[in-house]
Structures are given as structure tokens and as C-alpha cells.
Amino acid sequence: MTAAGLRERKKQRTRCALIDSAFALFRRKGFDATTIDEIAEAVDVSPRTFFRYFTSKEEVALSLVDEQLGVLMGLLAERPADEPVLTALHRAAVDVVRACESGANGFDAEHYESMQELLATSPALAAHSMEVGSARVAELSRLIGVRMGVDHLTDPRPHLVASIGICAVQTAVNSWRGTDGHAKSSELVDRAFQLITEGINYPSVLTP
Amino acid sequence: MTAAGLRERKKQRTRCALIDSAFALFRRKGFDATTIDEIAEAVDVSPRTFFRYFTSKEEVALSLVDEQLGVLMGLLAERPADEPVLTALHRAAVDVVRACESGANGFDAEHYESMQELLATSPALAAHSMEVGSARVAELSRLIGVRMGVDHLTDPRPHLVASIGICAVQTAVNSWRGTDGHAKSSELVDRAFQLITEGINYPSVLTP
DNA sequence: GCCAAACTGTCATTAGCTGACAAGTGGCGT
DNA sequence: ACGCCACTTGTCAGCTAATGACAGTTTGGC
Prior knowledge:
globular, DNA-binding
């Protein structure tokens, strides 16, 4: 792609290096036990520089989540307009997770796996992932609002659909934890969405 | 109720005092701008003591959320067993919020109002409220699993229902922010649950 | 080659948080 | 009343996260 500028490339390299060494350390020692100093030292930059790339330790770990949500919204926008909202969201979400698993779309499968583990073990991190999520939910509900043909600021439904979608993913992550990590998360996400859709079409699935 | 022990009462008093002064300061200066030292000083205890009552600054602010979830589960358990799960959750949630608004059940209406504001203004705090939430969701889905007659560990549906319920509340909080604070939150919660239930019975509400 | 902009390192500082130890206070048996 | 034990608290010391200020270096454009 773009080669523009040595400076720019160098920046990208340090950024990637920081992410890489951060994930390596998180994986080895856990999130809390890893310090910024260690991450910085592994890349041979000052701790101060770390904060010029990421605003917090959480942000490195969750850079992937943010990326995922970005891609998700891109895929959602490309879905045929006549598709029901939930179906579109369903397909887009599954596609993103599949991309992560296979390492497509510039995703790193190893990082994704590490992140699954991190989110399962560190509740503090999971909390921050919600923060990243809610920052994007506004954007997501705008998109959904457009698709539903209603204003996402006055009508609560787009927000509801958006957060229900996120619920599905959360539930999938939760089930994943229950399987001790040996289950394809894309299938779990698929299943969670199926349950919601079925629940909506056949209330008996969720209401009894 | 219990008067048991001077020591115990003293502890309760400092705990309450800490919460009170924390909320007062948060309201006046905002969450981030308030320091632990200030909170402690206002109650005339050492900052170290603060951390013997709360593990973090967020925990004071969210002690109310935790309490709410506790009460919610109590109310849910008291609901007639033949009521559909979502309906039971719906009613219990609305009851809790109403109790907060009116100051019943030992809730403090002013604190509740302050918290609404805090959650709306500080995304960091909202994120941590998710952490408190997810810590309780496990408990909540166990309860729901019992009610649905399935095992909450192998069947993903209880977790799904629980998190959908929380989505409703979140959506309500979100709408509340849109009304500049002059709307009864219990009504918004009621409306959000209605939408979900209607969506389930009449899919066209949520799927188009 | 030179200048301005961008990037980085060093230093200092604040806040959140934790462990260790000593001192004070309440509970309770004698 | 007395004293012992357990619990609570304050002090101190220290670590990590995070931010601002300043100075030095590198890069890109001219």
C-alpha cells in the first residue's frame, strides 16, 4: 500500500512493535503484572514514548477490539439494504470474527487468541473493552438508525438493536470461556445471534 | 434493625460518611477531578482508611449500582414462578428503579440522581459499572437458569436473557441522557423492556 | 545545506493503590 | 476493674500509571 514517508513507516513500525511486545508480555505474565516500562524496554523506547502511541495500558490490549468494531461497521454498511437489521448485523459480526480467526483483513489470529484469553482472565480489561464498545455504540446505532429509517437520537430502537448485538457477542465470549477455549468463537457468535433471532420469531425460545 | 456492637455501628457510619462526601464532591467537581485525599479529608480519616472500605475510587461511586443489582435479584426471586422470564425481569427492574427514584427500600433518591449524572458524563465510570454488572451477571443468569429450568453453565440462553435485560437498562440510561435529565428513568426502563417484549412477539418492531 | 516540523528522551510531578508496622479502641472473660 | 485479644486506624514507604515541560535529534521540503 502506502510507502509515504520514512517517518510515517517508522512510526507504524514502533506502533506494531509496541503492540507485539505488549501482547507477548501479557500472554506470559498476565495483564496486571506487566508494566509499561517492560513493554517500552522490550521495544527500546522510553516509557514516555509509549504514551505518545497509546493513552493507557488498556488501549494497547484493546486496539484490536476497536479495529474489530471499525471493520464491523464497514461490513454492515455494505450489506444489502433490504436485509432485516438483525440479520445484517448477524452476518457482519460473524464475518468479522471469522476474519480474526483466519487472519484475514489484516487481522492477526494469534493476537486475537491472546485477547480472548486476556478478556476472560482480566475483568478490569473486560470493563475497558466495554468503554471502547460504548464509544462505538453511538456510531453503530446511527448506522442502524439509517437502515431502519428512523432517527437514532429520538428513537431508542437503534440503540437497543446495537446493544443487543453486542450482547450476543458477549454471550459468545462467555460461552467460549465455558469450553476452556477449544471452540470456534465465530460459531458461538453465530449461535448467539441465532438464538436472538429465533427468540424474536418464536418467543418460546427465550421467554419461558 | 441491628444495633449489634459499637464498633460495627462506627464502621457503618464512616462508610456512609465516605459515600456521602464522595457523592457531594463528585457532584460539585466531577468524578475525575475529585481525589481520594479530598474524600478522606472531608470525613476526617486517612486516605489509607478509604481503601479499607473501598478498593477503588470507582467502587464508591458504584456501590449503589451493586446494591441495585442485589435488590433486583431479590425481587426477581420473589416473582411468581409461572411468569415468563422476561416479564419477571421487566417488572423487577422497573420496581428497583422506582424504589431508587422514590427513596424506598433504603435507597437514597439524591444519590441516585447524582449517579445518573455521573454515568452520563464519565465514560470511565460507565465502563466500570459494566464491570460491576458483569460480576453480577453470572449470578443473575444462574437465577434465570433456574427459572427457565435449564443449566446456566451449558445453556447460553440464561446468560443471553440476563444481558439483554441489562441492555434494556443501558438503553434507558442512554435515552435519559438524550432528554437532558428531565424524564423519569423508571418509565424509560419500562419502555425499553416493552420494546424488547414487543420485538419478540411482533418481530417487525425490531427487525426491519 | 538549512529551517521548520515532527519525534523522542529526560526530568519532575500528581494520583491511585498496596504492604508493613505501630498505636489506639472496643469486646469479653476473669 | 483489670487485662488480654482482636479489630480498626494512622503513618510511612514505595510502586505503577499518567501527564506536562523542556531540550535534543531526526526527517522532509526548499
